[in-house]
Design brief:
This is Cell division inhibitor. This protein has about 160 residues and is an alpha+beta fold. Helices cover about 25% and strands about 45% of the residues. An eight-stranded antiparallel beta sheet has the order 2-3-4-5-6-7-1-8, covered by helices on one side.
Length: about 160
């Protein structure tokens, strides 16, 4: 059984309050997801984020394939972090931690996603060919969209790393 980890960091020149307001609103996930994924929120964003919140989406991770994705917000510490976990969807496991930390330039966002692919060895073979590239593309898109919305910090490093754990 292979588990994978994606880690991403980005610094934005905004307050932690503004970052939290945007990132903890599940409806904004559509804003920072590439249009080509046909991301559509079906339910669960009527209230502010809370532990136990169930959110349903429809998404097309690649052409010709659409799926429902159901996540649960399992942990929330206002202004610091929240965790979403897939309950049903395209991954065998999806555990996504979102951290916010004030820094001199504004706020540092860090995402840590632990995930497992379905279909055993076939899923593992698809990781470098399809899944890793797609996730990297999604996070690159998100970085650019957040810069469009909030500006950038000159010289601030952005990192996306993958590892097998």
């Amino acid at each position: 059984m292979k588990l994978y980890r994606l880690s991403a960091k980005q610094t934005l020149p905004i307050t932690i309050e503004r970052a939290w307001e945007f990132l903890s609103n599940p409806a904004n996930l559509k804003v920072i997801t590439p249009d080509k994924m046909k991301f559509n929120i079906l339910s669960g964003v009527e209230r502010s984020m809370f532990p136990g919140q169930i959110i349903q989406y429809e998404v097309s991770p690649f052409a010709g394939y659409s799926t429902r994705w159901v996540t649960e917000i399992t942990h929330v510490k206002h202004g610091e972090y929240f965790v979403d976990e897939q309950r049903f969807g395209p991954y065998a496991l999806w555990h996504h931690k979102h951290f916010l930390k004030p820094v001199e330039e504004g706020v540092e966002m860090e995402d840590i996603i632990d995930y497992k692919l379905p279909f055993g060895i076939l899923g593992q073979l698809m990781h470098p060919i399809l899944v890793k590239k797609q996730l990297e593309g999604i996070f690159n898109y998100r970085e650019q969209k957040l810069i469009e919305l909030f500006g950038s910090v000159p010289g601030a490093p952005k990192t996306i790393t993958f590892q097998t754990i």
